Each structure stands twice: as C-alpha cells, then as structure tokens.
From TrEMBL:
Residues 7-139 form the HTH marR-type domain. GO terms for biological process: response to stress. The keyword Transcription regulation applies. This is MarR family transcriptional regulator. One of its GO terms (molecular function) is DNA binding. Keywords: DNA-binding, Transcription, Transcription regulation. InterPro entries: HTH_MarR-typ, MarR/SlyA-like, WH-like_DNA-bd_sf, WH_DNA-bd_sf. It comes from Rhodobacter xanthinilyticus.
Length: 151
C-alpha cells in the first residue's frame, strides 16, 4: 500500500497538470476570443476534417446538446459552419471556415510555447519518456477489459 498523499497521486497530478495547461492556454489565447472548449473543437476539425456534431460530442466527451450550443456560438462567431452531409442529408457536418483556418498557425505557436514552458528543465530524453508513458497510459485505459463487458 502506498503512503503518498492524495496531492501526489497520479490522478491528482494528471488533473492538476491538465488544469494548469488549460488555464494558461486560455490566458494566452484570450485575445482570439475563443474558449478552451471552442479551441478543442477547432483542433479536432484541424486534425480530422469536417465531421458530424455527434462525432464531435464523442471526441469531446460531452453531451450532444452541449456540442450543439457550442457550435451555435462558434457559427455565430464565424469560426465554423454546419453543412449537409453529401451522403446523408439528415446529418449536418461541422466544418472550418476561413477565419478558423487562418488562426491555426497562431494556435500552434501558442500551444508549442506553452508546452515548452511546461516541460522546461526536463532533458529531451525525459520529455520523450513522459510523452510515451502518457500514450501508454491512454492506450491501457482505452482497451476494454473483461469487466467492461459485464456492464
């Protein structure tokens, strides 16, 4: 049994690190008028291209109605558009508008600077090890287990 304090446990450390990164990103990106949630939508669209709102809800791990409201605000701001899916007219895909595509390099610079700051003092091999360890953690927890099938 571990005698580490809750503040030193893996869960607390991951949560606190994520919160600190999110808070700093929001501070640095505030000039662009987007929230962290809106930035996350843009990142998924930058990476994956246009997609249905339902898929965005899955990726963001939030309720479809919340994504709908989020997309409403982003559409009003000129960041994204909803368009009919060419293969299924019942589906509305969310796609980037020019305003969003133009901000992508700045968003990347903000993120890169933030990650450099977050990892300052860690040698390159430790940075690589941390990233690989986090990928492994995510992969391990993304795989279904036998107990998952019972639920």
């Amino acid at each position: 049994m571990s005698c580490e304090s809750p503040q030193e446990s893996l869960g607390f450390l991951l949560h606190d690190a994520t919160r600190a990164i999110r808070r700093q990103f929001e501070r640095l990106a505030a000039d662009h008028g987007l929230t962290t949630s809106q930035w996350r939508v843009l990142v998924h669209l930058f990476r994956n291209g246009p997609m249905p709102q339902a898929r965005l809800a899955e990726l963001l791990e939030i309720e479809p109605i919340s994504v709908s409201r989020l997309i409403d605000r982003m559409e009003d701001g000129g960041w994204v558009s909803r368009v009919a899916d060419p293969t299924d007219r019942r589906v509305r895909r969310v796609e980037l508008r020019d305003k969003a595509r133009e901000i992508q390099p700045q968003a990347r610079e903000i993120a890169d600077a933030l990650y450099d700051r977050a990892l300052a003092g860690l040698p390159p091999e430790t940075r690589s090890l941390l990233i690989e360890a986090l990928k492994t953690l995510i992969s391990n927890l993304s795989q279904p287990t036998e107990t998952d099938h019972d639920r």
